[in-house]
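Input.
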Amino acid sequence: MRAAGCVLWRPALSGHGIEIALVHRPKWNDWSHPKGKRKRAESAEACALREVLEETGQSCSLGPRLPTVRYAVDGRPKEVDYWVGRALGGTFTASREVDALLWLPPATARTRLTQPRDRELLDAAVAAPRT
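Output.
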């Protein structure tokens, strides 16, 4: 299974630092970065942009590439390509797939993330140059 997503960020509303977007998926009861399955013939970049928009309501611009994450879901291999994504604006609407969106400082986001692999991605995104 191929998928793509972003560690989505925006300048903090306080004017100091950045905030990271985390989505809550009720099916898995977890907090994660926005991501999803690639459609047939869809590029990883197009998938990441589409999934961020679908799950957060935010359009974004892709920044640096992050490590590809590989793991199993129900015994099947899954590979997710990630980028750092800068939020450009939009409005979140809850759905069956994603019922909550939080914008948190990186340290707080790190403790909220459910999976260790997502914490590693966050660390890589925070260390990456932002434009």
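The chain has three helices and seven strands.
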